[in-house]
Known about the structure:
Mean pLDDT: 92
CATH class: Alpha Beta
Number of domains: 1
CATH architecture: 4-Layer Sandwich
Helix content: 10-25%
Radius of gyration: 16 Å
CATH topology: Double-stranded beta-helix
Number of strands: 14
Amino acid sequence: xxxxxxxxxxxxxxxxxxxxxxxxxxxxxxxxxxxxxxxxxxxxxxxxxxxxxxxxxxxxxxxxxxxxxxxxxxxxxxxxxxxxxxxxxxxxxxxxxxxxxxxxxxxxxxxxxxxxxxxxxxxxxxxxxxxxxxxxxxxxxxxxxxxxxxxxxxxxxxxxxxxxxxxxxxxxxxxxxxxxxxxxxxxxxxxxxxxxxxxxxxxxxxxxxxxx
Length: 212
């Protein structure tokens, strides 16, 4: 029997993201067969996170919620503060949500400022410098990345300019799954101030390195 997650992953590799229906239980059953490795976003956490609208004073330091609270969040990739961010994000909404997820596939078609502008990535004692596109992947999160030169500031403006062109993925039906290729696709969340019960389950993965 074809696996639900396999089809979504293959589609996301081509288009940047793919949506279908299913459950987190299905995802967990299929992960081992697909050779995926779970990647926790925060040290000490599991790879599975429950994303809820959070006030700034209750959010994790350097997170987007710490800067923007329940308001509009900018386009970003997840795990940008990690030396090796996850390759794949699987988002599942058990119920429904009035707040969509905005998605923009960028891939390798980026201006030179994205390839060469230097950012400081804040991650405590493991902080480091990098560009927003390196080793065939995007890395961008204004919550933890500070531009260090003119090209990085130009890259910041470039990513901001993509917001209005991003596609909207809606959570109108229960049991929707959204798979995002975190190496080439940015995502964002509009304001959820009027959607306090929004709850999205996210699990992040790395592909087998020899398969990249």
